[in-house]
């Protein structure tokens, strides 16, 4: 028998537990391997079963995707209820046979359990990193232009897959009186609550449009300070509103990335129209300097970051027409993107568009800092000339880059997304910690680095590049923030990478994502996490690796030998991206290279300290370390044919991870996007049918130009494990051919999703990365009956009732029963039943003695696949007291514990032992 006991606090009144607001007390308890932990339950009827989790407090609407997991396996993305605490996942996405080790996560952070610090010591010596030397040019200083500020509000637009139209509203800040055309910077905010009730402290919703008495949260106004700085420097800026997407993106398979791209391009199209026909533009646009649509910078915060990345992609490589919410021509050129604390659920960055990614060290929303993939995920994909920069801001949280998400500045209720227990403050990120920034400090740093990207990508001023590319310079305007950077692309050449057949000795090649701790780069029990190893779609990935160097004495070299020699001929320095455990200091290496003639030269030494970190931060982040190649040139090393790289530890003991190493030279090369094939995975929904076998194919569209390689992961719907293969794709081909066989039957079962996930490897881009064939059950749910088996027994024996279905099923059937008060005579008490049974099924104890119906016995019973019945048993105990006959009543209920009106209430009687 499989069962789950639900401890609903009914307080003597049936049906107090509502479908979206179950009681706050313990909801479920475990009695066997297949039961559910506290806070979880199964709901639904007529085949629409759902897995439900109720949070102990409101989960703020944010950008990280709330996910249900079983261990390392993703079950699905639940639908949030309006109460902000209840989350529901349809069981066509997660069948009950897999419901073990249930977890609720967001960006790798557990939401359903307090942090487990039993294995964690307090971080040792968290410290503020050393202040770097100032750069020669500071982009955070205001310019000399006067500015104009205003807004426009156009007719809303309809986007595919979204029932409610999305607003076309924006804030404009631009130079006034500037001559000529000026570059355009477009801002897109992230996912946040959409509406609020004025005069309240926390009454916010995710509705759209807003209900009566509520006002829209003006997230698009949150970047006015950034816009003002850029406008004073000569850039036209526009910040667009996306509340309509935020309210609906929970139902989009790509979390709204394509919708956000469509919205961005809808606005750019309007600006292209207004540039050509100034008289048709809104007043603020006519008053502003003319925008130059050949120089566009897209700035996206959180899910807005993923949205502007997709907009840049769609502007170069058009998406499938049926999925796209913009149908017109591309009359603009995206020169770069700035991604602020971004999501990248698809791990599909655009390799040929330069970007700067801001990573907040105290991000409590997108806490795994998955935006690092906007850098790492571009390596080897295309030409490699676009600069991809990661900017790690120590002490910054997620929300404070937007003033409308910042307490004390916002019009609506706002909060600090980094939350820790006040009794156990985080040594790095709690307010008041030496490393934590104030809201004003954080926003100033963000403005400065957004301006740096604009100056580099739009104005072509290479003097700001050292602020972004790992050169270790600082912008005084961002003080006192400590900012570290690394990059790939630009004028980097060569590339010592752990993948692609490299041989490693003296260390191990580890995998970013692997369930085996011996293979994974970081053991799952490691406090904290690494942005380089953020989870994607599978529990095991191919092609995401690092070199793990561990030593207990100095002197043993770790050697990386690529499959073929590399050229560092045009480089000035060797740039390595290396990280060490947080809060460690003084890790030292000698760096050596060997050419194809076996000439070996030590280039120099590097030293690296760990970032400030705790168990709550993603501080295993690589810093860029550089050594000059002058020693190699003096020794006449053949820099055109470098066959190996060595790292020799010089500190007594330690551990470090090498992400990659490149030949580096100053400068920012011109970028021209390659003509590449684009892959988009669709979804087909089919009925199971009653007989026969049919074969369907997962819909995949390959468009664009040329030939490239992608890795295709085929996800097993039962185990969640994946098989993968490397596939060469060409436009119009059917290279990704995944057949799905569907056998019809007349047996009730759950819907099943047969999915694939795709990632670009070389000379390709991926739009919609996941899809598949959904097979819908089309058989009626069986009729469930409750009948007595032994309903008149002597004390010490067992009362038994049987729940039966009229035919076997292919799915678990869950149905609740509840013990009700008797209507006449004496009722069994909590001391008349086995005390362990009472504890297991209700979480209650016999004392004080009370009627059994007061023990909150509401039980979900499971009839497993292939079975037709399950018994509900009540073991009674024999006592010495002379008693009259006692009874209990049992009823089938709905998911709110209310007895079903069309089902009988059964009575069981226990007689005194003669």
Tell me briefly what this model is.
With 914 residues, this protein is mainly beta. Residues 1-34, 93-97 and 115-123 have low confidence and may be disordered.
Helix and strand topology:
Elements (H helix, E strand, L loop, with lengths): L1 E5 L21 E2 L10 E4 L6 E5 L11 E5 L2 E4 L2 E2 L5 E5 L11 E5 L2 E2 L36 E11 L8 E10 L5 E8 L6 E2 L7 E2 L9 E2 L7 H9 L3 E5 L2 H4 L10 H20 L6 H5 L2 E12 L1 H14 L17 E7 L14 E6 L12 H4 L11 E6 L45 H19 L25 E6 L4 E4 L6 E3 L2 E4 L33 E7 L6 E4 L11 E7 L7 E9 L4 E9 L14 E6 L1 H5 L7 E8 L4 E11 L12 E5 L1 E5 L5 E5 L2 E5 L3 E8 L6 E8 L9 E5 L8 E11 L2 E2 L3 E7 L7 E7 L1 E3 L3 E8 L7 E8 L5 E2 L7 H8 L15 E6 L5 E7 L10 E7 L13 E6 L3
Parallel strand pairs: 13-17, 13-18, 18-19, 19-20, 20-21, 34-42, 35-43, 45-52, 48-51
Antiparallel strand pairs: 1-2, 1-49, 3-4, 4-8, 5-6, 5-9, 7-8, 9-10, 11-12, 12-17, 14-15, 14-16, 21-22, 23-33, 24-27, 25-26, 26-33, 27-32, 28-31, 28-33, 29-30, 29-32, 34-37, 36-40, 38-39, 38-41, 41-43, 44-46, 46-50, 47-49, 47-51, 51-52
Helix pairs in contact: 1-7, 3-5
Walkthrough of the structure:
This protein has 914 residues and is mostly beta strands. Strands 11-12-17-13-18-19-20-21-22 form a nine-stranded mixed beta sheet, with helices on both faces. Strand 38 (708-715) and strand 39 form a beta hairpin. Helix 1 crosses helix 7 (439-457) and helix 3 packs across helix 5. It is globular. The two termini are 32 Å apart. The model is unreliable at 1-34, 93-97 and 115-123 (pLDDT under 50).
